[in-house]
Sequence to fold (222 residues):
Amino acid sequence: MRAQERGLIEIAAINIRDFAPGKHRVVDDLPFGGGEGMLMKAEPIIRAIESRKQLGKISRVILLTPQGKRFQQEIARELSGWEQLILVCGRYEGVDERVREHFIDEEISIGDYVLNGGEVAALVVVEAASRLIPGVLGNEASAQNDSFSQGLLDYPQYTRPRELRGIPVPEVLLSGHHQHIELWRKKEALRRTWERRPEFLKQRELGEEDRRILEEIKRTDR
Ligand code: 4HQ
Fold:
């Protein structure tokens, strides 16, 4: 059964327009001082945030914006511990600065590119954080084995057939030698991380064995 049906998470989409007054329920306005485009008006956003806070849950209010802190697995882990996340998604050129200053706890960016609205960014946060809540993942081991949980990229993986259009699966994986397999996987994970994301290896303090394997990789690869 899905996480929402099991009561592990609850996701509600709040329409800011429902908190805007008047027949036209206007949520945008011109920027003071002039300039391009429109901004989100403050009051409807504040009322929408307050409507969720009234539910009495311990809440973290997050604005999705390119100016925010870059979203990473570590942030997903932190956020997964809150009872309620209130993810504020702007449209247009952004939100009135007073909302950010006085009603937002934390600003997050999912990456250095420009979206039309924060909704897709909010979905990224929801998906990354909710799968870390105990019971949400089908296989509890999976979150532990994820890339990043160890600070390394994933090792290469294969399934049947043993030979695909003449391309074989690495022999060691068919050998049944669990120690050899574990060592091979560790080495391939370290190799990929070193080749593709060397900055991960600087952040993570490597164990005795990892350092030995890494030196071997550096010596033998090119
Ligand atoms: N936005 N990470 C919302 C983003 C963005 C990002 C652009 C946020 C438009 C109105 N959000 N404004 N990158 O590009 O989170």
In short: Residues 64-66, 90-91, 94, 109-111, 113-115, 117-118, 121 surround 4HQ (CB under 6 Å). Residues 19 and 44 are 5 Å apart (CA to CA). The mean pLDDT is 95.
